[in-house]
Amino acid sequence: MTLRKIASLNKDLIREYFDKNTFQKGWDYFQHDYVENILLLGGMLYGNVASHRKLYHVEVDLASLQNKCSCPIGKNCKHAVGLLSVAVQGKRFVDGNTLIQQMNQMSKSTLLKFITQLMVKQPSVAISIAKLIPISPLQSQRAPSPLRVQRLKNEMHELLNDLMELKLDPKTWVDQFVFFIKNNQSSFKKELVYDAMNFLISYMDEYGGFYVYYTDSSYDEPVFEVLADVWLQCGISEEDIDKLKEFDKSYPYGFINSFIKGIISPSNAPLLVEFTENLYSLFHRYNQYIEFLINSGQTDEAIKEILKRGYTLTNIKKFDYLGKIDETLAINFAQEKRLDVQLIEYYQVQNKLDKALSLFKEAITSKTRTRKLSQRQKTSKYLFHIIQDQPSLAEEERRDLLRDLFEVAHVGQHYEIKARIALEYKEELLLIRMVPIPKALWEENFALGFEILKVLKKDHPKKVTRELRKLFKWTITSDVLTSEHAQKTLLELRSMEPQAKWSNFVENVYEKYYRKRIWLDLRSRGINIRKIKGKVTIVIETK
Q1: Does residue 48 share a domain with residue 121?
Q2: Domain co-membership, 16 together with 79
Q3: CA dihedral sign of residues 174, 178, 184, 189
Q4: What is the DSSP letter of 309?
Q5: pLDDT tens digits, residue range 104-144?
Q6: Which domain holds residue 538?
Q7: What does the alpha-carbon distance between residue 356 and residue 360 come to, in Å, rounded to a whole number?
Q8: Residue 127 in domain
Q9: Per the confidence metrics, is the pTM higher than 0.90?
Q10: Count of domains in the chain?
């Protein structure tokens, strides 16, 4: 993967992949410079995105735009949009591919010298490297002395008491506590973790439990994440798992979620296979147990659970899990359960476009399967591009398939796809079915809606003028569309109506909405509208 792959991306492609609200929020993150530490490596883009005093790590596959994020949502979030937006706009990022090539040309001694300098300047780099490189018992650090452990315990309790006495803003306290733990991570013992957990659970009512009042959010995640990291690095036993169960039983409000997340992670799960039976009753949700089995390499047991005992999992979730274990098994399962949407999206990601197209042709022969296809707009977008770009299709077959896709999009109210198909061949019957154009399309892609009206205006002037009048009234009061959209609409209407009729319409709208900015902005286009002595006057400058 080269820089050329980023160059081929654009804002429209990102907008198509993510839903409208997520795209807009992510684009705002880019505009406010919330994205940092961007790395291009292989076919992946990595970066950090600041959000509500937290820093989330984001990874995006540039070929498929599949992504994952350390935020609670996990994927397809605003942070992924923010990362892609920065790269697309040509902002600074590190080209890791070039960097790797340069390091390959270095001698071993030069490379070690370089890494040593980096660790000295940034000790956190050394900690990260240590986590990646297994250290044998002979190489490991000497166990901390009882005196040091006691000192750490005293310092930790000072911090915990600060929380109780509300000496600091709770969010500031979280930052300080997390820093303290990380800074002393190599000397921390499980007993200190249990001590902290006991305190935080016992006195939750006094300090408020990190809960943000009047909202449905909390900010305790970094605290329990860092405690879970320390707990896992110390090595765990059956007694430690039982201890977590006690915490969960005494205060079942998700305090051990970070511990469970760490247990089922691909890096830790293989080390905990011997505790599988005990861990089963620790997990809060059945899917956590399935993920643990998969990540720990117990694939046969995972398949059995998914297929035979997975009554709490949807077929879609079962397909996702089977896909992590055995591609053939997952595909056979999806075909048996008629998971057409998931299979089409899977084939698209795998670039097996012929299979995706064949499945679409098969699915549209059934009303039930066609209705299911309409449930996801993303699937319609994938199919539109597949049909457009497939070289093996004859032009007449391509046209017929797009008509079929139009009907799927019509059922699912995928207005943008409907508009693109109608404009592809400018078929009058399809274009007429787009009118009246729904507000959702104007908000999602104003240019497409406007293009439909321009194509129709010659043969259907009355329909178009009626639509433009309605659009103008709505546009000047919309929170989504801008003055530019309103001006464009009004000028197009002026080109289609007699001057007197157009002026009369404008005067009536002005009477009702005279405080809107549109009237001031129109002056730059030579149209001056004002009310003088109770009468609305329109003066149009001629060049």
Answers
A1: no
A2: yes
A3: positive
A4: I
A5: 888 888 888 888 888 777 766 666 666 555 433 333 445 67
A6: 460-543
A7: 6
A8: yes
A9: no
A10: 4
